[in-house]
Specification:
Chain A contains 25 helices and eleven strands. With about 675 residues, chain A is an alpha+beta fold.
């Protein structure tokens, strides 16, 4: 019966779902490539083993088994395709994705980005890094007392001029490397972030390759102490560990020296734009996380929407059955805007990835004066999109789970593990709050630059078109360009206001840090509004280029996204007089309900367009055929024991329930 | 060093923390009682066993062991004190709390509330229910296809006039009892919700006691099929299961018959207010969850704030050290309003508990005309406070975790398990969204009643004082009474507006359900505003009665709560013209920063007032003495293996990393 109901849902769809898949994937060839890779995961027995019952220690073993299945593809696929494969792995096994990503994404990419070609060849080719042959790398950045403040790390790399070596040393407990993925079990080598000390002078944090273990025996090398940091909220497949160094001597060659280098006499040389040059490569981590926000988001919104299209509760659908929960106004209101967000994340991830490439190329071209405005924009944009993108996906998983009621809490429907694995994305590679405040600071700095007549980058130049008034009418609520204009107006005004406040505080205290600190709430707010505005603009401009047959559904989704961010931040529209009167809010809400009604027939079709097989959905209530009860029930029975009497019955249960009720001497 | 820093933090505190504890606990005697109970948990070896490494199956065993340590206290403590003890258990072990709560809170309380005195005596005394002697009860309400819609449950209880028995039957897969805590391992008996069918007539859902297992062998009785529903997001210590009944015959005596009863000839009798009479007792679950929101909230905000008071990152505190993260404007902004929320939850939980007692007494007094307005209010108030209270605690745990950076993600700092255990509170005992919409519907119904000149209950009667305009000035932002008046004005206007819209839709469609459906977004909004307003009023009125020495700090917290809900919903103030201009928002933000600055010296003192020992805090970075690094490091080392080579090294790791790189025949 559920099969038939799902077929009926599909028949309602107004567009060719395959075309929408091509749009989302960036073309038919990309879709076919992804499908082939998805099949290779599904066929691999190691990826079929269920992990629900594994302890955190067993998960680490399983994760390494899966790593062995991934490694060969790096040479088979080539780098670009392998990254797509990694993106698929991220959807089904966040731990393995990260554990391997630390080696391939962090270790080898750092050696490539910050090391000389000889250094890359040495570790990644000759020593076996790229093939994981007698080699596994880890990334030794964070310490027990330092995470966000990388410049404040405490591990020391002291140059010994006598023998031309560095001494890597952990001077106190707080400098213990902490959270290092791969350190506890796997890593043979580590890129260590440590303060370069030459002739008593501190040159700040640089990068050094340190071997941790004997590659033949896997025993720790002298001076290296390592421990496991144990149980985590999620991603237990990663063997995060801590590392302490006691005067570990490494050759001068082991300092990554593409930009900063030390000669044998201890002279330190550093090019003018060393930070910026290193930065564009390292920002890739954030860019990837916007993409992961999209793919993880589409998995969980699919589960929630398919369940909503099959689950009935209360009411009457007109045929005597209870009403589908997807047909409740409020249920749509909870989920459809998040569906629109997934499309917005798709657009912004493609946009920020392209912009990263553009900025990197302009840096490589060497004309830094020309490259700098876009580099600043890349910093603000990638920070904002990483922060608000990963948060949005938290919301999608959490609201998705709640929207599935009790079944959302089952371990077999994906949300719990999915949430636990996901949320660390808000913390690593730049804490979301710290990134948001940085983004806000960059916007104020942009505005100060603008006031001085300087040129702004591609994504902040709209700040220059300052208008003093703007009015949005309820009749314009379907006009995305008007809504974009309204939010540009708000963003301009908010950034201007924040800059004015900053300047006033600066005048009063004379201290820049203090003045920025005082406008913290402004900084957070402008980062949010700016990021959502750019996301909306990006989404809208991509919709314009879509094929005619999918343009209507994309336009509805884009309208919904525009109105969702509008209603979420509606106070700002009122405060700047863009709208007036309590009816406006009411009309926005009714308009959202109206768009949801129009989107309703297409919902299941849209989830199909996301093109994740049941294997990738990995949820008993989110399957394509919609058998939310039969298959769920039979799956639960396949997972759990058939024994009616618990294994602790004789030892714990029976002795208590069948205890004598005669009083012991201590009882009265 | 950290010890000394924490001492310095405590020295800054402006009030006697002990007095604030008494205020929160409701008096010194209550505090002493709680402390004695906390000590008894801490001394019990079974509660000392760490559970980090247990699989979900092992957690079920541990949970039952802990249950055996709790049961004796029911007779030793008496019911009221035992409930307090259960409240403490909820903080440290949500699974065991619920598993035992299903028996004591749901099974026995339902038999008490809906059964006759003879029925209570039979199962709870004679058969051993109250002592868990050869008896463990469970609560068979939800089914695979029905959760929220209790009236739509499908299990059948068909009366057989020939032998005076009921036949309990699961007619199809969807009617399988699902999520039944205790069913999989422990329960001997179950209160089954089933449709009463007499002579072919369906009388709707009633309650029946059904024995599930032989009390001596623990084997399932004939006609009973049970399975384990397996892995969950959290609370794996509960043995949730599914139950299917195949024509299970039970005596007529087993239908709980305090209100509705069937005589031996099949005549069904039911008093006029059966639902309302049964309801006041069953609403206790929600009331308890507001209290649990408070206690769990205070645990996690304590961890986050103590960590913030010890952790340093970036900047300079003036003494050459990095700045404490608690001294960043934005970090305060993230946590201090949540601290204020914990105080608001303390107030609202006491208020709703008292109101439940009052309503129950007025029902028992028999004058239903007098009792009904407050019963309606109790319904709306407990629904709203359960929903927005449990959500607030989700936010406290989530924001608390994020505010601790990477360390928040460690399994040993409490947030992960805490979140996983907590969030089901948003789903069970009434899904939060369903409850919010019901609360909104009740408010519209109240307004309709008001328009007809009917009397409203204690908490909704403010709706009658309708004003057409209200102005709030920036100079009044510290005046809580003015802010309360502003939100009363908004709530009145929103409820009026929702009612008007409802009436218009009703006029157009003639269908009440349809009209209520159309105003869903209004219903959700008025439920939120009404609940937060009542919470603020309650908080404020309790602060007025506090001792002089703690009144200043409580007033700051209450101001902060008032401004937090104001800024979160500021669009409403603009939309009704209560405030104007973008400066207002800016001023509210600056005022919040200012209050946070005033609260700052008292923060650690406030966490002390919550009076949870390190055992109850159960977080390495949240301990009273503040040794966030040393103790955390040594704890991690005590939990994890010292072996440097992973247990799968020989079987998995070495064979792969040391594989031959000679090509296999399939490779080119």
């Amino acid at each position: 019966m559920s099969l038939q109901e799902m077929c009926e849902e599909r028949e309602k769809c107004s567009f060719n779902t395959r075309e929408l898949t091509y749009f989302l994937d960036g073309g038919k060839d990309k879709t076919l490539e992804l499908e082939e890779m998805m099949t290779s995961f599904e066929r691999d027995p190691i990826f079929k083993v269920p992990t629900y019952d594994l302890s955190w220690k067993e998960q680490r073993e399983m994760s390494f088994k899966r790593i062995t299945r991934m490694v060969p593809f790096l040479s088979l696929d080539g780098e670009e395709k392998f990254n797509k494969r990694m993106g698929l792995l991220a959807i089904i096994d966040g731990a393995t994705y990260t554990r391997l990503g630390v080696h391939f994404g962090l270790f080898t990419q750092t050696v490539r980005a910050l090391g000389t070609p000889e250094q890359f060849t040495h570790w990644c080719v000759d020593k076996g890094g790229l093939k994981c042959s007698k080699f596994f790398g880890c990334f030794g950045m964070t310490e027990l007392t330092h995470g966000s403040n990388v410049a404040g790390l405490q591990t020391l790399a002291t140059y010994d001029e006598d023998d031309g070596c560095f001494l890597i040393h952990t001077p106190h407990l707080g400098a213990t490397k902490w959270w290092i993925g791969g350190a506890a079990h796997s890593a043979t080598h580590c890129v260590v972030y440590a303060r370069l000390i030459v002739k008593g002078k501190d040159y700040g944090t640089k990068n050094f390759v340190v071997q941790l273990r004997d590659v033949n025996t896997h025993e720790l090398l002298p001076g290296i102490a390592i421990g496991d940091i144990g149980k985590k909220m999620g991603r237990d497949g990663i063997d995060n560990g801590w590392i302490q160094f006691t005067h570990v001597r490494i050759p001068r060659f082991n300092m990554l020296s593409k930009y900063t280098s030390v000669d044998d006499e201890g002279n330190v040389s550093k090019p003018k734009f060393a930070e910026q040059l290193g930065y564009t490569a390292l920002v890739m981590g954030r860019v990837t996380m916007v993409y992961d926000s999209y793919t993880t988001g589409k998995r969980f919104i699919t589960i929630a929407l398919r369940y909503a299209a099959m689950r009935r509760q209360f009411g009457n659908d007109g045929t005597g059955k209870e009403k589908k929960i997807i047909d409740y106004t409020h249920h749509r209101r909870r989920l459809f805007p998040l569906l629109a967000s997934v499309f917005a994340l798709n657009a912004s991830s493609a946009e920020v990835e392209a912009f990263q490439k553009k900025a990197q190329e302009s840096v490589l071209s060497g004309d830094m004066d020309k490259a700098l405005p876009n580099l600043k924009d890349l910093f603000a944009l990638s920070a904002g999109m990483k922060a608000f993108g990963t948060w949005e996906t938290c919301k999608i998983i959490d609201e998705g789970r709640q929207s599935c009621g009790g079944h959302g809490y089952s371990g077999y429907n994906g949300f719990g593990q999915g949430y636990n694995d996901w949320v660390v994305q808000c913390t690593w590679e730049g804490d979301n709050n710290v990134l948001s405040l940085s983004c806000g600071r960059a916007l104020i700095q942009n505005y100060l630059a603008l006031e001085k007549g300087e040129k702004l980058g591609d994504y902040s130049k709209y700040l220059a078109n300052y208008a003093s008034t703007f009015e949005l009418k309820t009749s314009q609520l379907e006009d995305i360009e008007q809504i974009i204009s309204a939010w540009e107006f708000i963003s301009q005004n908010l950034v201007k206001k924040a800059t004015t406040s900053y300047k006033n505080f600066l005048k009063a205290s004379g201290n820049q840090e203090d003045a920025f600190e005082k406008v913290s709430s402004n900084r957070f707010e402008i980062a949010k509004i700016h990021t959502k505005l750019i996301t909306l603009k990006t989404f809208y401009s991509r919709v314009q280029k879509a094929k005619a047959e999918i343009k209507p559904v994309l336009t509805l989704l884009c309208q919904l996204y525009a109105l969702s961010i509008t209603v979420e931040n509606i106070g700002q529209l009122y405060s700047f007089g863009v709208i007036t009167g309590s009816d406006f809010t009411q009309q926005v809400n009714f308009k959202i309900d109206e768009i949801n009604e129009k989107l309703r027939p297409d919902i299941v079709g849209i989830t199909d367009s996301f093109n994740l097989s049941d294997f990738f959905i990995a949820s008993q209530i989110g399957k394509k055929q919609g058998g939310i009860y039969e298959e769920y029930f039979s799956f639960v029975n396949s997972q759990t024991g058939k024994e009616q009497i618990p294994y602790y019955y004789e030892t714990v249960f029976k002795p208590y329930l069948h205890r004598s009720l005669e009083q012991n001497d201590n009882e009265d």
